[in-house]
Amino acid sequence: MAEAPAAPAAPILSLDGVQTHIGPYHILHGVSFAVPRGGVTMLLGRNGAGKTTTLRTIMNLWQASEGRIVFDGADITRRGTPAIAQAGIAYVPENMSVFSELTVAENMRLAARSGAIDGQRLDWVFRMFPALKIFWHQRAGVLSGGQKQMLSVARAIIEPRKLLIVDEPTKGLAPAIIQNMITVFRELKQTDVSILLVEQNFHMAKSVGDAVAVMDDGRVVHTGTMAALAGDESLQQRLLGLSLAAHQ
Predict the structure, then answer these.
(1) Is pLDDT of 248 > 60?
(2) CATH number belonging to the domain at 13-247, selected among 3.40.50.300, 3.90.950.10, 3.30.390.50, 3.30.2000.10
(3) What is the pTM of this model?
(4) Key word Cell inner membrane present in the record (predicted)?
């Protein structure tokens, strides 16, 4: 008798009916989607669709007014932000969260939970971001925009994490730096970390994305594979108002 197929693994993160109000404004209107374990899940949508609010709500920087957020089997909807980070989620906001007056080395040590950086892991980070080794003893404020973004991502991965949440890592970056980011995220996909990535550069989205959720007006209006979305120009036009082919 043939064995029954194994049940699919539970998602690393799921949102169910999440609503968020910011002051008098109702921003998220029942957001529901799941982030599978492993690989990269893209969260796409037009400007103002609610993507950043969704990420900030996951981290409880803005509290959900309704709904449920489950991470690695545990309800984190009402947990404080430090406890969520301690559970294994690293968050990289779009504003390049680095301490400009501190050196690159000091920025990295602050991101390490014990203050001490594992040498092997640091070598791995340097291999992905060689500029950080060059500027190791320089103040982070002297770095270019692309180098600051590299430092932001490096800070998030200097410790092993279960989930990496990144908001627009290529925003404002030169094409060569974007290509470097694509290489980095492809390498990160080979590790144990799952990734939730908001990105406006559709070449980046197509290059690294596995699953996708598309938002519009504070709601998730489409979920599926990134490959299927990348191969359907009419769906891209309907959901995003543009064609990925124009962003190669």
Answers:
(1) no
(2) 3.40.50.300
(3) 0.91
(4) yes
